[in-house]
Design goal:
The protein contains 6 helices and 2 strands. The protein is mainly alpha-helical. The protein starts with a helix and ends with a helix.
C-alpha cells in the first residue's frame, strides 16, 4: 500500500465510507456545475472565482472517484494522495492529471486566501478541470 495513503488512513484523513457509492452521481453533477460556472466566470473576467470553481470541479470529480472505492476524505491533500494511490498507481489516470489537481489546489488556495490569481492560472485550472472530469467519468463508467 502507498505509504502516504496509509498515513492518511491512519490519521483518519481518509475513512471508509460505504454509502459513498450512492453519492457518485451527485458529485459528478456538482463537478459539472462548478466547471460550467468556472467557464462562465472566466469568460466574464472573474479569474479569482473561475480558479476557485475550476478547482472545486476537480475536487468533486475526485470525490466521486474516491466514493466509488468506498472511501471519504477529511483533507484536500489526502484526497490528492488517494487519487494517486487508487487511480494513478493503478494505471487508470495519468500522473500529469493528478498533478494538475494538486496545482489547481495551490492556485485555489492562493486565490482564496492570498487574493493572488491570474488569467493564465484560471485558464489552466479550467482547462484541466474539464479534462479531469471527463477522465473521472471514463474511469467510473468502466467500473
Amino acid at each position: 500500500m502507498n505509504p502516504e495513503f496509509k498515513a492518511c488512513l491512519e490519521r483518519g484523513k481518509i475513512t471508509v465510507f460505504p454509502k459513498g457509492k450512492d453519492l457518485v452521481a451527485k458529485e459528478l453533477r456538482t463537478s459539472q456545475e462548478d466547471l460550467e460556472d468556472g467557464k462562465f466566470g472566466f469568460a466574464h473576467g472573474r479569474y479569482k472565482w473561475s480558479t476557485i470553481q475550476g478547482y472545486y470541479s476537480m475536487f468533486h470529480a475526485s470525490r466521486a472517484l474516491l466514493y466509488s472505492r468506498g472511501f471519504r476524505e477529511r483533507s484536500h491533500h489526502c484526497l490528492y494522495v488517494a487519487i494517486n494511490a487508487l487511480f494513478v498507481e493503478e494505471g487508470q489516470m495519468a500522473a500529469e492529471l493528478a498533478d494538475a489537481f494538486r496545482n489547481a489546489m495551490l492556485l485555489r488556495e492562493n486565490a482564496d486566501y492570498r487574493t493572488h490569481f491570474s488569467k493564465s492560472g484560471a485558464k489552466a485550472v479550467i482547462d484541466k478541470a474539464g479534462e479531469f472530469l471527463e477522465t473521472a467519468k471514463k474511469i467510473l463508467w468502466k467500473n
